[in-house]
Amino acid sequence: MADLFDYVPHPHVEQRRKGGPPTVAASAAKVHGPGPLGRFNAKVGLRITIIVGTMWTAYLFTVLALVSAPAAFKTGDSIIIVAWVAQTFLQLVLLPIIIVGQNVQAVAADERSLATYNDASAVLEEAKQIQAHLKAQDEAIQQILATLTAAKATRIDGTPEPA
């Protein structure tokens, strides 16, 4: 007897199994290109972001900005003081702090993405188990059907049913 259902896996399942989850290297290649220059640019950019994106850099930049503070305040000119605050202090100090915040958010996003990827993999495996369970049920149903069909073709007394 033919199978009641033919399972055809979605093509994306095989692609995802081969490729695995997205990586930083793959994303960097999309931004900077796959060649050696692209990889170099991605590595340099990532390294600088890692170095500048620390609270230690924020502290260092704060000290560096404060070196010029006395000269700015000594002028008494409000334009120079505002310019020092906006262009020196805020830009110099907030840059690494913003990067730190973005790095924290990126780590959380990566963890959520990996959890989602793992959940999707688990759901796929569960679906495969359901398919196997349904196939076993189909086989049992086919056996029951065959038995009922054979029983219907035979009378209770064992003689064949007339056609």
> Over the alpha carbons, how many angstroms does the gyration radius reach?
34 Å
Task: Report the major sheet.
Answer: none
Number of helices: 6
The structure class reads: mainly alpha
Q: Total strand count, please?
A: 0
Between the first and last Cα atoms, what is the distance in angstroms? Answer: 22 Å
The pLDDT mean sits at 85
Strand percent estimate: under 5%
Unreliable stretches: none
Assign an overall shape: rod-shaped
Estimated helix fraction: over 70%
Task: Provide a descriptive summary of the structure in words.
This protein has 163 residues and is mainly α. It has a domain at 22-51. It has helices at 11-19, 24-32, 36-52, 55-67, 69-75, 78-153. α2 crosses α3 and α5 (69-75) packs across α6. The longest helix is centred in the last third of the chain and has 76 residues, at 78-153. The mean pLDDT is 85.
Structure summarized in a few sentences:
The model has no long low-confidence stretch (mean pLDDT 85).
Write the layout of secondary structure elements.
Elements: H1 11-19, H2 24-32, H3 36-52, H4 55-67, H5 69-75, H6 78-153
Descriptive tags:
80% helix; 163 residues; 6 helices; mainly alpha; rod-shaped; single chain
